[in-house]
Task: inverse folding
């Protein structure tokens, strides 16, 4: 009843919101105070970089920075003594919150499915099957790269790279081939980023573009060929440095847990619901995703109860004290716990999700004062969209592609459709130029480790090992842009 009354109270107090598109963002960039939002954003990002070495969660500085930025925005708007401008600010904040909230819940659902598939040993089965095929090292190099390219459109590039690097490490450790692991890791990063670029589900930036309405769902697949070129060019070059000898690897058998195939089917059906909601019902894709999440949790409810019946409490010998017996039986936890969908949600990368929310809200605050309008006028007006969109990809290798794409969408430059497809491509694949340019690269720098001569685990995929082959990745990047210009109308 309390919940019902609260909902009725909110509905009664609600007033029709102002659409952000109905009110142009004013230019309030003059003066020292407005520039405080730019300084705050830069400081927040510098703290994120510093925090990576000091184990500070990256979400902390951006969440605080977003709050400070919007406080400054509110003060600047309030100083104008204009009721209409205050309405513009409120509409801008509401618009940003709605869009970012939809993206966040979309990601929560997608990541929950990925964590669930991991728990059901789906990715372990992929590793087992690939190692069991008896391929050579060069064949495994190509097989893992191709798998990353084909899986990342449905999974995020981070999960894809981490799932397949276990295959690479198993082969590299058995053959003591450090170079193979390093080259295969670069190949995984490039392939995962390239595969994610031609699908709305493959990367956060492509999801942002789709949600914004700049590119329709099926139009993403028109950049399949440029994405393929982006991966194939460096992969072909690096493959000549990989041995063609057969890899003998111990491969322990793996069995997927009960319900794994049903959950895979539910994941595919959930993606179908998201697309259908947007294409057929003109609803945000997030409603299809959250519906699928509900179906997963419903299936998990029945699966959990079924698996509970398969676990028995420990058989305790006679003579055990009754109080001790009660404690042991009550607190008994089986080695393999029954499935619980809420545990999957608990195990999400919440730091990444909160970072995503914070950085987008911070960029939205900067845009609300008109800074990005001025940047757009200079970059897209003076340098042209093709050069600027190419630079966006290079910038995303240095700065996270999420704030870069958020800034482009906030600028909303006047471009032909082919240019929106180009910036979608470059923001997705540009991060492959450096190991720190994408989530997949950063993750593999921590995961791709092998024992050295003394048995100590050391990283074999590093910033410098990737940098040695950046020239090959750059050739693929340039080739993908060239192929894209041949396919799409750019003016």
Result:
């Amino acid at each position: 009843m309390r919940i019902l009354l609260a909902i009725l109270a909110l509905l009664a107090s609600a007033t029709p919101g102002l659409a952000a598109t109905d009110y142009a963002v004013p230019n309030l960039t003059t003066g020292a105070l407005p520039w405080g939002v730019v300084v705050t954003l830069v400081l927040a990002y510098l703290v994120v970089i510093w925090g990576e070495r000091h184990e500070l969660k990256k979400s902390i500085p951006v969440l605080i920075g977003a709050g400070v930025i919007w406080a400054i925005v509110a003060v600047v708007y309030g100083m104008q003594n204009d009721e209409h401008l205050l309405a513009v600010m409120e509409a801008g904040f509401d618009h940003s919150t709605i869009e970012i909230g939809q993206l966040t819940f979309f990601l929560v659902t997608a990541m929950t499915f990925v964590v669930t598939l991991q728990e059901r040993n789906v990715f372990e089965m992929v590793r087992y099957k690939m190692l069991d095929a008896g391929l050579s090292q060069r064949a495994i190099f190509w097989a893992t790269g191709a798998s990353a390219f084909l899986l990342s459109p449905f999974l995020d590039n981070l999960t894809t790279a981490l799932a397949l690097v276990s295959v690479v490490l198993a082969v590299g450790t058995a053959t003591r081939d450090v170079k193979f692991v390093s080259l295969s890791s670069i190949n995984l990063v490039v392939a995962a980023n390239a595969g994610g670029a031609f699908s709305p589900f493959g990367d956060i930036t492509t999801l942002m573009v789709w949600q914004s309405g700049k590119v329709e769902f099926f139009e993403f697949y028109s950049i399949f060929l440029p994405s393929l070129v982006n991966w194939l060019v460096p992969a072909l070059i690096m493959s000549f440095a990989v041995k063609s000898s057969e890899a003998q690897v111990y491969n322990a058998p793996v069995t997927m847990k009960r319900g794994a195939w049903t959950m895979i089917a539910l994941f595919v059906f959930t993606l179908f619901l998201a697309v259908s909601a947007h294409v057929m019902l003109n609803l945000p894709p997030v409603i299809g995703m959250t519906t699928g999440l509900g179906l997963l949790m419903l299936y998990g409810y029945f699966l959990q109860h079924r698996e509970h019946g398969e676990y028995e409490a420990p058989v305790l010998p006679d003579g055990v004290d009754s109080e001790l017996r009660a404690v042991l039986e009550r607190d008994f936890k089986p080695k393999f716990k029954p499935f619980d969908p809420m545990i999957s949600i608990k195990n999400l990368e919440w730091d990444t999700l909160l970072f995503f929310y914070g950085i987008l809200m911070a960029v939205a605050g900067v845009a609300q004062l008109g800074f990005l309008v001025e940047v757009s006028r200079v970059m897209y007006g003076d340098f042209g969209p093709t050069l600027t969109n190419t630079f966006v990809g290079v910038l995303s290798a240095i700065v996270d592609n999420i704030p870069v794409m958020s800034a482009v969408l906030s600028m909303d430059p006047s471009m032909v459709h082919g240019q929106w497809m180009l910036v979608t491509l470059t923001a997705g694949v540009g991060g492959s130029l450096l190991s720190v340019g994408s989530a997949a690269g950063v993750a593999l720098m921590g995961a791709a480790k092998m024992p050295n001569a003394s048995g100590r685990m050391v990283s074999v995929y590093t910033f410098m090992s990737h940098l040695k082959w950046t020239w090959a990745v750059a050739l693929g990047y340039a080739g993908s842009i060239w192929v894209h210009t041949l396919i799409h109308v750019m003016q």
